[in-house]
UniProtKB/TrEMBL annotation:
InterPro entries: Aldolase_TIM (IPR013785), GH (IPR017853), GH114_TIM-barrel (IPR004352). It holds the Pfam family Glyco_hydro_114. Residues 1-19 form the signal peptide. Residues 55-269 form the Glycoside-hydrolase family GH114 TIM-barrel domain. Keywords: Signal. The keyword Secreted does not apply. Coiled coil: none annotated. This is Endo alpha-1,4 polygalactosaminidase.
Length: 276
């Protein structure tokens, strides 16, 4: 049984930092493409999703392939090469969801993690934070996971929980530790020809923008943070965004103004979606 989807961990920004980040942000023209052709990139190149691409994010249940959007984000372990191929035949690009920040007791490679890298429970059943300072230990594990994504034919990776430094993990993680780990994760993806998205971690967008090809964000509208994502838009990189509690009437106008690819989802991340 799949662990439930999670709202993102919150990292509180100091007021001065928030102001500095906001000062460098600007708006983007309305853009929401629904054509599969717009999801493609030049042959042989790492996929570079552009702002405005509509998407489906389904991490629970059998993947429903008929949603008419150019991008799907699905679980890397629970979907097969055939599932990815079917989405490709329908003209979709496919993102591989992989948790890189926490150990999960329901994954087939769970025994490959030494106990020394397992921290506190992260609030979800069967999950424990990872000691991301242990790069030499975690790198081969994540390499094998990203090999799986590549071998199944995925175009990109969504690495989850890449902001442990802002949480009570059981380890004394720093922002510098997180930067090193996140850049390692991006390098692992690019070495395999996969594009990679920065999941949440808004405070480190200025430092990590060049390392990541797109962003995935949860609940920036609820916390009034969506403008912090505009560096990705200004760089021509998609921001795939969801809200769980906010109705579309509360955030879609601003999302369109900023150029975000936004929708409302239920927390379990099943088939249901309400796009902007």
């Amino acid at each position: 049984m799949r662990a439930p989807a999670r709202p993102r961990a919150r990292i509180l920004l100091p007021a001065a930092l928030t102001a500095a980040l906001l000062a460098g942000c600007s708006s983007h023209p309305d853009s929401q493409s629904h054509s599969p052709a717009t999801a493609t990139d030049s042959a042989g190149a790492v996929w570079k999703p552009k702002p405005g691409l509509a998407w489906q994010w389904q991490l629970d249940g059998e993947v429903e392939p008929t949603v008419d959007v150019p991008v799907y984000d699905i679980d890397g372990f629970e979907n097969s090469k055939a599932d990815v191929a079917a989405l490709h035949r329908a003209g979709r690009k496919v993102i591989c969801y992989v948790n890189v920040g926490a150990w999960e007791n329901f994954r087939p490679d769970k025994d490959g993690f030494p106990r020394s890298v397992l921290g506190k429970n992260n609030g979800w059943a069967g999950e424990r934070w990872l000691d991301i300072r242990r790069l030499s230990v975690l790198r081969p594990i994540m390499e094998r996971r990203f090999d799986m994504c590549r071998d199944k034919g995925f175009d990109a990776v969504e690495p989850d929980l890449v902001e442990g430094y802002g949480n009570d993990t059981g380890f004394r993680l720093t922002a510098a530790d997180q930067l090193r780990y996140n850049r390692m994760i991006a390098d692992i993806a690019h070495e395999r020809g996969l594009s990679v998205g920065l999941k949440n971690d808004l405070p480190q967008i200025p430092q990590l923008l060049a390392d990541f090809d797109f962003a995935v964000d949860e609940e920036c509208a609820q916390y009034d943070e969506c403008t912090l994502l505009t560096p990705f838009i200004k760089a021509g990189k998609a921001v795939f965004h969801v809200e769980y509690k906010e109705p579309t009437s509360a955030f879609c106008a601003e999302s369109r103004r900023l150029g975000l690819s936004s929708m409302q989802k239920k927390l379990e991340l099943g088939v249901w979606r309400k796009p902007c």
